Amino acid sequence: KSIGTFISANKIALSGDIPLKQKKDEFIKAIEEDKKNYLPYYYLGILVYQEENNVKRSMEYFEKAIEANPRNPMAYNNLIARYGQANMEKEQLELVKKTIKLFPDFPEGYFSLAAINFRNKNYLDSIKYAKLSIEKYEKMKKLDYSYITESLKNKYESDAYYLVFLNYVGMEKYDEAFENSKEAYIFMAQKDNELRYTMYDTLVDIAQEIKKTNKIKYKEYSAVLNSLQFAEQLVKANKDLQERKSGDKTINSNPLKID
User: Fold this and answer.
1) CA distances (Å), 131 to each of 56, 137, 159, 165, 174, in order?
2) What is the pLDDT of residues 62-80, one digit of tens each?
3) Which of 6-20, 62-76, 216-230 has the lowest mean pLDDT?
């Protein structure tokens, strides 16, 4: 009965014209019917954060979701994020380590550790764990974590690629940033993730700054930007062939000029 009530509550929660209190009441009703059903707690944690920006209450619901079902890594993942927003750095790190221990093949545990290391400017460790999360995603089977949709998986993996890039920029290792951008950009273009445009713009800014002092290096960087532009066009052409549609956002021209 609780599952049926939860399904009904979830449908109501997805409706934009239903008052927040009614949405919450429906999930609470499912909890009252079965306090061992972790799903209402989990979705209440999402709901109160998204619609009320209530970080503390969101944490409480995710903690209860974990208590009801300690084998759902997404509850840990959301609680890790809330701890970060609440500046509970010690608790966040402890939970990340616990998540990795409990779910060694769950990529987001490693991504969270990479993000913490990036925040603390431990760039090499951040790169190591971000790359490990990418590796875990590449090996992930659909049945392993069926609740992670293909689109969500692509988003998370794009985030990891972008974090690797940000670490190289943070270290001012621009050669590595440009070199690693190639694989990252192609992946993001194939998955239509817009982080690639942010990455491209950052590369343009770096190249423009380098131009003032090193024209040879500037030409090398400009060549990489041209290759990214070409990759964008190839991906788009392939999508057009497969989907018979056009009009996707692309970088139409490289704003840099090779002197």
Assistant:
1) 31, 10, 11, 11, 18
2) 999 999 999 999 999 999 9
3) 6-20
Count other Cβ atoms within 10 Å, centred on residue 155: 15
- Give the separation between CA 116 and CA 93, rounded to whole angstroms: 8
CA distance 198 to 139: 27
**Measuring CA to CA, which residue among 223, 239, 136, 108 is closest to residue 175?**
223
Burial profile 76-110: b = 16 or more Cβ within 10 angstroms, e = fewer: bbbbbbbbbeeebeebbbebbeebbeebeebbbbb
Region class of 81: left (phi > 0), else alpha (psi between -120 and 50), else beta: alpha
Q: From residue 206, give the alpha-carbon distance in Å to each of 60, 101, 107, 181.
A: 43, 39, 30, 13
106 within 8 A of 136, measured Cβ to Cβ: yes
Torsional class of 70: left (φ above 0), alpha (ψ -120 to 50), beta (otherwise): alpha
Of 40-54, 65-79, 148-162, 238-252, the one with minimum mean pLDDT is 238-252
Q: How would residue 247 be classed by pLDDT, with cut points 50, 70 and 90?
A: low
In our burial notation (b when 16+ CB lie closer than 10 A, e otherwise), range 224-234 reads bbebbbebbee
Coil/strand/helix, residue 237: helix
**What is the H or E stretch that residue 145 is in?**
none
Tokens at residue 164, please? 């690797």
